[in-house]
Known about the structure:
Helices cover 74% and strands 2% of the residues. The protein is mostly helical. It has a two-stranded antiparallel sheet. β1 and β2 form a beta hairpin. α3 (51-66) packs antiparallel against α5. The two termini are 17 Å apart.
Amino acid sequence: MNQSKLRIKDMTMIALFTAIIVICSWITIPTVVPFTLQLFAIFTTLGLLGGRRGTIAVILYLLLGIIGIPVFSGMRSGIGVLLSTTGGYLLGFLLSALVYWLITSLWKSSLPIMAIAMVLGLLLCYLFGTVWFRFLYTQSNGAITTLAVLQMCVFPFLIPDCIKIILSLIMIKILRKRLPQ
């Protein structure tokens, strides 16, 4: 009986935080790679739910978008969004979640370890998304330098994404005491 309550609670928390990721993805400033609050929501989700449940929430978010529910930035959806030049950054969110899960499962899930896991996850997201963007952009528009891709897709996001990680850690510290574990 106790396990079924835990499962229901887990599913409820995963669904709630998936919805929070969706809402934060809709808050958008359109650019080549849109400015959104997805990253803030994803890292807050991971920090509050833990690596396993947080990764499930990220997977659920991506699956909702793939099946056509408009959960991505700009109310977009479909596999075409993931296969577009910016789709690598969306898939990078999953890689970030997996890195977070790995790091926090190997070491105690303290705020400093969580911060390290988030920064490494962000760097992996940038790496994967940038390689993806450059490959697809080159296929359709011709050659582009790595520096040009970084100037479009990474450099403008460095400071805002670091701020999102800091705010996420603050939110986690505040909400950990109030949410059921």
